[in-house]
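Module 6 notes. Inverse folding takes a fixed backbone as the condition and produces residue identities as the prediction. Think of it as a translation problem where the source language is geometry and the target language is the twenty amino acids. Below is one complete input and output pair. Work through it position by position during the lab.
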């Protein structure tokens, strides 16, 4: 099943919240004030990308070993209905974002999704998330 055929609105980023010590925050502000970075977010994103680059081989090996799908994968009502017709049960394993269409009912999700493992974020209605709670790993 190709889950990339229909995509929801673009999701470029996910908001996260972090707590930093005052000294770390002060050092970040100093670098921003000195013009090394345009703002705090720019420095934090750069630091994260540098760390991800440092560990890129580990990420690639783990993705392959765990059979994770990389990127954004959208599961439409039509995708799940096709799986139901074919008698398939989906084992969703995504590194990035898995998105289940808002018009997917809890009943359809239960009938077609065996398990969900997402490293990143899962977008689905609260009814679908509640119904699948025991299947979200």
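Target side of the pair, the amino acids:
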């Amino acid at each position: 099943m190709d889950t990339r055929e229909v995509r929801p609105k673009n999701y470029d980023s996910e908001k996260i919240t972090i707590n930093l010590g005052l000294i770390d925050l002060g050092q970040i502000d100093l670098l921003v004030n000195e013009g090394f970075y345009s703002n705090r977010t720019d420095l934090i994103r750069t630091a994260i990308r540098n760390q991800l680059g440092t560990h890129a081989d580990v990420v690639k090996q783990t993705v392959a070993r765990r059979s994770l799908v990389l990127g954004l994968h959208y599961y439409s009502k039509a995708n799940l209905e096709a799986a139901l017709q074919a008698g398939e049960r989906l084992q969703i394993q995504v590194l990035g974002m898995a998105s289940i269409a808002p018009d997917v009912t809890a009943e359809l999700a239960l009938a077609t999704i065996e398990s969900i493992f997402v490293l990143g974020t899962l977008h689905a209605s609260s009814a679908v998330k509640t119904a699948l709670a025991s299947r979200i790993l």
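Reference fact for the lab report: The longest helix spans residues 40-54.
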